[in-house]
Amino acid sequence: MSAYGALAHWYDQLTGDVDYAGWADWLERHFAKSRVPVSLVLDLACGTGSLSCELARRGYGVVGVDLSEEMLAEAAEKAAELPPEQRPTFLCQSMDRLDLFGTVDACVCCLDSINYVTDSAALRRAFRRVHTFLMPGGRFIFDINTPEKLRSMDGQTYLDENEDIYCVWRADFDAKSRICTYGFDLFEREGALWHRDGELHEEKAWTPEELERWLRQAGFVTVKQYGDRKLRPPKEGEGRIFFVAEKEEQTPEEFAAAFAKEYHKWEKSSES
């Protein structure tokens, strides 16, 4: 079963403590500093669409992209509660195969989704794809669980529950591969009985140095790091840090030529 195949239906209930309005507030502070007026936002790895819908309610056009069909089904149901003109557009794609209808003014990728890309080549491709579809001067904003945090989770067991679902999960960190594996056991109430399901998730402990190097290789000219939803640099031992990468400014002619070149290169690599 794919990641979130079993968990998707219960994801929002099990993560009810996530302050999506607070996340959107922090993102908007960076949108306000962008050299490009932000009206269209790409929410990469959008999950069940909570952040996509929060941004849409604030007046942004939103494109939500996720690899999980099950998570996107939950997102579409949530978006149906919005007025038709506010509803995000959802696409089922992997990050490294991102293929949009046009450009976006900003891209966000939240809640350590970057850690879920455990292959370095795929992550570098994802950074290049985001760069391709960003408007010149646009910002790519994402967060990661730091290596220190993932290492500290090794051997820990966590529990979430309500009246209808009981979820227990264990984290195991492998120092050689730098991958933290989460084993989820889900117990869902079905009348007087409980149905058991489970799935495995993996997060890679990418270092800030690796990520900044690959962002610059992808073409981002400015890369800054911040503490957990702060406007200051990260502190030592901080478990979550944010990156804000800015694309270079270009004339319309330069951008059109660069976009065509990158898109053609991607099409050729997709055929091979």
Notes on the structure:
This protein has 272 residues and is α/β, with parallel strands linked by helices. The protein folds into two domains: 8-145 and 205-271, Rossmann fold; 149-203, S-adenosyl-L-methionine-dependent methyltransferases (N-terminal domain of TfIIb, Single Sheet). It contains eight helices and eleven strands. The strands form two sheets. Strands 3-2-1-4-5-11-10 form a seven-stranded mixed beta sheet, with helices on both faces. Strand 7 (165-174) and strand 8 form a beta hairpin. Helix 2 packs across helix 3 (50-57) and helix 5 crosses helix 7 (208-218).
From the 3D coordinates, which CATH architecture of the largest domain would you assign?
3-Layer(aba) Sandwich
The low-confidence runs, each spanning 5 or more residues with pLDDT under 50, are: none
Order of helices and strands: HHEHEHEEHEHEEEEHEEH
**How many structural domains in the coordinates?**
2
Radius of gyration of CA atoms, rounded to a whole number: 19 Å
CATH class of the largest domain: Alpha Beta
* CATH topology group of the largest domain: Rossmann fold
Relative helix content: 25-40%
| Annotated CATH homologous superfamily of the largest domain | Vaccinia Virus protein VP39
Derived structural class = alpha/beta
Query: What percentage of amino acids are in beta strands?
Result: 25-35%
Strand order of the biggest β-sheet: 3-2-1-4-5-11-10
Outline the biggest β-sheet.
7 strands, mixed
Our measurement of the CA-to-CA distance between the termini, rounded to an integer number of angstroms, reads 28 Å
Shape: globular
Number of helices: 8
By DSSP, the count of extended strands is 11
Average per-residue pLDDT, rounded, comes to 94
